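$ run holo --ligand "NAP" --emit tokens
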Amino acid sequence: MRSFVRAGRGPGLTEENYNTMTTASKIFVAGATGLLGGQIVSNLLDRGASVRALVRPGTDGDKKAALTALQARGLELVEGDITDPVEKLAAAIGDATTVVSAIQGGPDLIIDGQVNLVRAAEQAGARRFIPSDFAIDITKLDDEDNVMIGWRRKAAAAYGDTSLDVISVLNGAFYEVMIGFMGLVDWEAGTVSHWGDPDQPLDMTSVPDTAAFTAAVALDPEAKGTQRFAGEVLSMRQFHQTLERATGRGLTLKNLGTADELRAEITRKAAATQNPFEYVGLQYQWCMVTGKAKFDNVDNAKYPQVKPGSLEDFVRQAAPKA
Ligand SMILES: NC(=O)c1ccc[n+]([C@@H]2O[C@H](COP(=O)([O-])OP(=O)(O)OC[C@H]3O[C@@H](n4cnc5c(N)ncnc54)[C@H](OP(=O)(O)O)[C@@H]3O)[C@@H](O)[C@H]2O)c1
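-- output --
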């Protein structure tokens, strides 16, 4: 087995052993052409890490060009797909010690593809795997609460026998998703909608900060198990007030119903479609507003070098102004 530098320390990663780790290990990133994966790669390079990124042969030219530009900073690119035969994927992983997955897709990728990636990582002699979890607290949910989280839980069970150390990074909801994909904010109508208790605390983190925490975890020789991070913990009432402060606009906070009514709405939508992406946004909201997927604690303090930005600053940059 390849040697792996272990720096003795208490909780938290000092700059000294962080740097020791960066020179001693190579990180393999699958999903590097994606929104989160690309930023994980940049963060790792910023820290002086050796990084190899998997790029699919048919990937979009612009997305590939963004990675090609990073080759000047030492990034290695290797062509492949996480569904490739294990031997081929293991050769792509090569001498990497840590495999990070930031892929996105359906169960064929999140379950079967990631299991394949784990088997390839084992064969290559890697030591650690960071799966494409990056969510609310998936350890507290049941498989049927959220279809996308269910796939991640099933994947974890399927590679549960692995010899690799599996480190799951959880970040709550992306700020980008809270003001976008979730469909909560209607800038034109000037409304912020929510279900359930407006005072339930919710975990959220921006994409860049999630990438920075993931890079810190990937380079931390002592990281183990589930690592939880939150840029902000805000209720929907505080979220609404933050958006008003950041934009200088009056926005109406609109209650759409109770958490039980949200559950009924999800059941109705699920019965009417074969496409889970039509209701998964509501499932994320249910998991959050009920408090079921709330972090009990966060691990931000282990990585003081990552200083997550506030939602207010993020919205000031991203949202339409008054
Ligand atoms: N907490 C939240 O609010 C939140 C929100 C959004 C996403 N996420 C999570 O963040 C993670 C990354 O999501 P994202 O939005 O960054 O995804 P994304 O932008 O859609 O990128 C997906 C990546 O996966 C790659 N990929 C897909 N199929 C592949 C295959 N067969 N082999 C190798 N690579 C493959 C894609 O490559 P190509 O470029 O070749 O297609 C791309 O690089 C996921 O776990 C997602 O659930 C969390």
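-- notes --
The first strand starts at residue 26 and ends at 30.
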